[in-house]
Amino acid sequence: HRGVVLTMAHTHCLVSWNLTMSSSTHATRALNTATQIQDACQEAPAPRPYLTMGVWSGTVACSSFGSSSLKGFGAIGHGVKQVVALQQYAAMSGRKIIASNSVYKATCDAPSHRLLPVDVLSLNHWRASQDELPWYSPKQAHSKSSDIVYDCVATINSGP
Q: How far is the C-alpha of 128 from the C-alpha of 118, rounded, in Å?
């Protein structure tokens, strides 16, 4: 689906779908890839890998980093933190693919996936510790930093 892998490690990978060329369907392509990876995990022989994913849409800073002899490419900024928070929320809540409200808004005109609202999180104040989970709280529900998050529960078939 034309994603660009920015970071790959044994515990995570970061992929962008709007990096090399602007695309209005980047959120849909990200969800397509996430569901295909989950389907492949289900078809894998036992023991099956269990992966959780966060899908977010927005702006990040991308650039080459390093020296003239050793360069890497990556993304930094608020969006990377939000993707991590969504993935960790998916893992802690037993869900496989969690999408942000920005992904829902980017795909709601031509939905290809069933996105079920599951929680209200304060992703801007997320700290990746077990002591401070991003669960719903009345104080967070009405703040500007709160966001509805969605469980990607199914792919919608668009043909016969």
A: 20
